[in-house]
Structure formats: C-alpha cells, structure tokens
What we know:
- The chain has 144 residues and is α/β, with parallel strands linked by helices.
- The chain has three helices and eight strands, in the order E-E-H-H-E-E-E-E-H-E-E.
- Strands 1-7-8-4-5-6 form a six-stranded mixed β-sheet. Strands 2-3 form a two-stranded parallel sheet.
- Strand 4 and strand 5 form a beta hairpin.
Amino acid sequence: MRNIERSHFEQRPSIVLTAMDREALFALLGDPLKTTDVAAACFLREEIERADIMSDDVAPHSSVRVGCYVKFVDHADARIRRAQLVLPEETRCKHRISVLSPVGSALIGLGPGQSIRWKEQGRERSLAVLEVRARPPGGGAIEE
C-alpha cells in the first residue's frame, strides 16, 4: 500500500458490520468511479474482510455503520468530533465523513470505547469512538 500502510493490522480491534453494510461496501469497492483513491479502498477492504458479521436488526448504537452518527476523538488534532458516516456521494453537507476516507474506514465497525491505530502517508493515526447513535443527539443537526 502506498498511502495507508498495513501497520498494526494484527493489533486492530475486533469490529462488527451488518450483513447489509458489508454488501453495500463491497459494491462500493467494485465501482471504479467511486474508488479513485486506491490506498483508501484497500484499507476499507481490509476492514470489511476482517469484520465479524451481525444481523441487520442489531441495536444501531452497538457499532459504527453507514448512516449512523458518531462522536469520536481524532488524536491527530486532539479534539472531539461529531459526524455522520456516509457513502461518498453523500458527503456534500458539513459533518459528514465518507466511509471511503481513511477516517471513515477506521471508524466502520467500531463500538463505543474502542480505538484504532493505523498509518496514513507514513504517519501514525489513531482515533477512539465515544458514542454511536442512529440519529443525531436531540434529533436535530449535529453541532461542533
């Protein structure tokens, strides 16, 4: 891999995906128009392949999945972030992270209290999930 190295692969936390997300993410990776960043696509594929699969009706706050709202600490800038994890074509609005970005690929499948480390463009990255919700807190817009 060029931009995102396989470092710490064996030390990554266990992750869980719904069967529906797994299929949607594999379909996304099969679309060459949406996967222009080869390194990010490889990182996402690694995460999908190592994930445990759960039924689609499992509690939506148990793990980060496509469409959910997540509160996490990105240790790159040591601040708490709130965002919705979305497919690449849905990132036009503020506070949305593409599942095909390095941070989005790192978040997918993690549960509250879990953290992950990876290398991106030669530098160590890490983040920790604080909270996962099906809707934004209070049901309204996400606030920074």
